[in-house]
Amino acid sequence: MTTYIIRRLLLVPVLLFGVTVLIFAMLQFLSPVERTALYVRDFPKNDKAIEGLIKRYGFDQPIYVQYWTWLVGKVDKTSGVREGGILFGNFGYSRSASQPVAELIARRFPNTLDLTIWTVAPMILIGIWMGVQAAVHHNGFIDQAARVFSIVGTSFPTFVFGLLMLLIFYANLHWFSPGRLSDAYNQVVDSSSFTHYTSLLTFDALLNGRFDIFLDALRHMFLPILTLSYISWATFLRVTRGSMLETLRMEYVTTARAMGLPERDVIFKHAQPNAMLPVLTLAGFSIVGLLGGVLITETVFNYPGIGSAAARAATSLDVVAMLGFALFNGLILIVANLVVDVLYAFVDPRVRLS
Amino acid sequence: MTTSNEETILQVEDLKMHFPIYRGVFQRQVGAVHAVDGISFDVRRGETLGLVGESGCGKSTTGRTILQLYKPTAGQVHFNGVDLVSLKGEELRMMRRKMQMIFQDPYASLNPRMTVADTVGEPLMVHNVATGKEIQERVQQLLELVGLNPAFASRYPHEFSGGQRQRIGVARALALQPSFIVCDEPISALDVSIQAQVVNLLEELQEQFNLTYLFIAHDLSMVRHISKRVAVMYLGVIMELADRDDLYLHPLHPYTQALLSAVPIPDPVADARRTRTILEGDVPSPVNPPSGCRFRTRCPIAEKICAESRPDFREVSSGHFVACHMVK
């Protein structure tokens, strides 16, 4: 088990190297002038300034030198200040958000993480639950109903379903609103009396003892959560159902029945745990997808997460910010894959020992 | 039906298992697979009844239907005098303690996520016959009983060979001290050298615990070795049932004769001298089985009556049952 985890960990630097090389390669499509955004906030004003920046940040150097400078940045000899250097968290400046990309991520990512945390349970658990029920009642009414219900969800484009939700629950019923928080609460949260322990709004609200803010935050997240869940349920249902049907046919399940195990235990103790392996992979990918920011959903509901920031960067051709997001996404993907692999080993003894 | 005065442990009467086939938009039932179509026999305490037949003839379905893993379409199964078909829920669950099953595929029949100790100990836990430490001790005993090192208890199934896995399956089946075990082709997935080991183990255990086996197989020589009596199935129906030697030396039904003549003999001279009955054609579909005698479409001696009426399963000599119009 330990060697398995160590082997997986050793792979991480290799993957990270691959990601940086890829992103760096994409950077080469930008002109040196555009690339100055990696180091300086403002677009250089004249040829002379451009010339100076190119010299200063080594855009005229061989490509491997440039790669190295991109990784570790450039330390000013006199002041000792480090400029750039993605290894030190300096992803450059987002000219569309008028702030460093790292700062933008630091401000937006907690919101995305908050949304992800609250979406995981309804998306995955309900999806799995429907899949199990569908498999247990194979070809019965519940099976057909669950499949129709979920296929409708998948068939909806996110923006159509999201707008439909807004139309019904915001415009007509006034139950839920887009955005992150009501204006009144925004002021409370921004004031000094509100401590940001985790920067996750819902958790901070609870830790500050403001249950009203917690509820308001959830109220704003409800529609994105519903949208994200509904469009994913069909996938979870289908994978769980197929995998369950397969395990339910295994002889150890029949044996469990033959030995007199109650049907509940047969399903939830023998069949379901064994059917969960492919679902675990899917869940890993889905969570990574959510963490990377859900561009359309966040944009539709005006949710200030990393997805809506990326959408804005993309529409304003803020390439340095885009590549910063891409780099961050790659990091999340690698970490999440590592977690899924380790979980796999916990869940499946066969992986642990081979 | 039995003429013997030995104690009958299991009595199967006119058992039928039809699996419905649904088609079309409204999923109407358009037919049924007649997997088991009216079979009657009984099993005596302490004996091994071999059940042989080609693949798809309904052997395994018979075993599973007897254990009520499928709800039979019709018929009765008396186990120790109790009709299993009429039992439901808790009552049936309690009866399961006395009847267990060993499966063909030692890879599919063990839950890959459970250790050997969990697998073998689970029946004890399910029926609350032992707790905590008792279970552990019992598991150790059972593993020793089937010839496995008790130190392996904390290992997972994939760490074992096929033969070892089958022993785990046997240990699990024995955990509740059942009196009747359905062995569903327990050796056909194993290497020949291992087959003998497992069969010997089953025989030893039978002697030790006075177990009764319904031994389902298609390997005729192995069935001959282990069984006291043998039943031959074809397309959901039992064609012939007799004492082992009686059946192997004096087969009456043309299907049994054909089946036995296909058993290879490890003696080329003798093999060349015997006459082989080779059956023509394929096994008909169990969805639309032939009228009258199921075997008539391939039978070398079939006559008109064979298509008209289904032959009775009658006793032609003491303990020798056969379903054939042509046998006098």
The biggest chain-chain interface is:
A-B, 22 and 31 residues
What does the largest sheet of chain B look like?
A: 8 strands, mixed
User: How far apart, in Å, are the first and last alpha carbons of chain B?
Assistant: 19 Å
Low-confidence stretches of chain B: none
What's the helix count of chain A?
16
The structure class of chain A reads mainly alpha
Please write the CATH class name of the largest domain in chain A.
Answer: Mainly Alpha
Domain tally of chain A? 2
Query: Which shape of chain A, going by the Cα principal axes?
Result: globular
Question: What is the number of E strands of chain B?
Answer: 12
The low-pLDDT segments of chain A are none
Q: What's the pLDDT, averaged over the residues of chain A?
A: 86
Percent strand of chain B equals 15-25%
% residues in beta strands of chain A: under 5%
The span between the termini of chain A is 9 Å
The secondary-structure class of chain B comes to alpha/beta
CATH 2nd-level architecture of the largest domain in chain A: Orthogonal Bundle
Overall pLDDT of chain B: 87
Notable characteristics:
A: 354 residues, mainly alpha, 2 domains, two-stranded antiparallel ribbon, 16 helices, 72% helix, globular, B: 328 residues, alpha/beta, four-stranded antiparallel sheet, 11 helices
Describe the structure.
The complex is a heterodimer of chains A (354) and B (328). With 354 residues, chain A is an all-alpha fold. Chain A contains 16 helices and four strands. In chain A, the strands form two sheets. Chain A has a two-stranded antiparallel sheet with strand order 1-2. A two-stranded antiparallel ribbon of chain A has the order 3-4. In chain A, a hairpin with a 6-residue loop joins strand 1 and strand 2. The longest helix of chain A has 38 residues, at 211-248. The model of chain A has no long low-confidence stretch (mean pLDDT 86). By secondary structure, chain B is α/β, with parallel strands linked by helices. Chain B has a domain at 253-328. Chain B has helices at 59-66, 89-95, 116-126, 132-145, 162-174, 192-209, 220-226, 244-249, 254-261, 268-273, 304-308; strands at 8-23, 28-44, 48-52, 74-79, 82-83, 99-102, 180-184, 212-217, 229-234, 237-243, 314-317, 320-322. In chain B, the strands form two sheets. In chain B, strands 6-7-8-3-9-10-12-11 form an eight-stranded mixed sheet, sandwiched between helices. A four-stranded antiparallel sheet of chain B has the order 2-1-4-5. In chain B, a hairpin with a 2-residue loop joins strand 9 and strand 10. In chain B, helix 4 packs across helix 5 (162-174). Chain A binds chain B through residues 139, 250-252, 254-262, 265, 270, 273-274, 347-350, 353, and chain B through 22, 27, 64, 67, 69, 93-94, 96-97, 99-101, 103-105, 108-113, 122-123, 126-127, 156, 158-159, 169, 172, 176.
